[in-house]
Design goal:
The protein is an alpha/beta fold. The protein has helices at 2-19, 45-48, 55-63, 77-86, 108-114, 189-207, 250-260; strands at 34-40, 65-67, 70-71, 119-123, 135-136, 139-140, 157-159, 173-177, 212-218, 228-229, 231-235, 242-244, 248-249. The radius of gyration is 17 Å and the shape is globular.
Length: 282
């Protein structure tokens, strides 16, 4: 009986993924219709959570969930992005400009595409859709790991001006990448917090009634806090006001994102990671 049930569950997951609806995710996590991940830069947990300089992020925390022991993998920025996206730093150890498509390793986007599900990234100040330029004004490719993979079409990297106003047309999974000012790298926490409210606040409100999820996290800390970073979850699948003191890292977040999509494979170190639990609504 157990094997029949398992096969039925797998069949449901395959059907819903191909049909464009919510996939059958692992039982520990929900199956949102849409997930957006936003990554900010170089700030420790204590610099953001509970800080008056980040009122919007803290409103998401109180209305959603906070991981109080969330950690990045390493320093500097770029290898953390690869870790979060592919379960490995892919040999990247610095922020220098890599050769586009240097790796064919499995990653969040390639897995999503292989499963017949939708994926995109929305990149502020990217010169044009699919551009592989290293930098342009406040845009920096070091924060865009998808360009490192030959199995992710460059066309799925869109400009932020292409971010839809009809949120029901969003991909099932997407990343939003602010530029070097909006992501708090060159500008203040307050600047990034305001950018988030102005550009994704309406999505967050919509997500709270449309079975969708917003994930706000950071690439790394300020090198002074053991790489402890803020990570906040918000949307209808999240239990409002919840926290968890379980230790999580980028690989655990990647594993959780894969499982919200009902993916049957896990990239790199996500295969041995754990799902985020204790913060989901019943």
């Amino acid at each position: 009986m157990a094997s029949v049930t398992a096969l039925a569950a797998a069949a449901i997951g395959m059907w819903s993924g191909l049909g464009g609806g919510s996939a059958q995710a692992a039982g520990a996590v929900p199956s949102p219709d849409h997930v957006i991940v936003v990554v900010f830069e170089n700030h420790a947990y204590s610099q953001v959570i509970g800080s008056a300089t980040a009122p919007y992020i803290n409103s998401l925390r109180t209305g959603g969930a906070s991981l109080t022991r969330s950690y990045a993998q390493t320093h500097p920025s770029q290898p953390n992005y690869f870790a979060l996206f592919s379960g490995s730093t892919q040999g990247i150890t610095d922020d220098s400009c890599y050769t586009p498509g240097f790796s064919s390793a499995a990653n969040l986007a390639s897995e999503q595409i292989a499963a017949g599900r939708s994926w995109a990234s929305y990149n502020e100040t990217l010169p044009s859709q699919g551009s592989t330029t290293c930098s342009s004004g406040k845009y920096a490719r070091k924060h865009n790991p998808w360009f490192g993979f030959s199995n992710v079409p460059t066309s799925t990297a869109k400009t932020f001006t292409q971010f839809p106003t009809d949120y029901s047309t969003l991909p099932q999974l997407s990343f939003v990448v602010p530029n070097l000012c909006s992501d708090m790298h060159d500008c203040s926490v307050s600047t990034g917090d305001t950018w988030l409210k102005n550009n994704l606040g309406a999505y967050a409100t919509w997500a709270s009634t449309h079975n969708s999820l917003l994930v706000v996290t950071f690439d790394e800390d300020n090198r002074l806090s053991g790489n402890r970073i803020p990570t906040v979850l918000y949307g209808q699948p999240v239990k409002a006001g919840s926290t968890t003191s379980t230790t999580y890292n980028h690989y655990d977040l990647l594993r959780t994102l894969e499982d919200t999509q009902g993916l049957t494979t896990h990239a790199g170190n996500a295969a041995g990671a754990k799902d985020i639990t204790g913060v989901w609504a019943s």
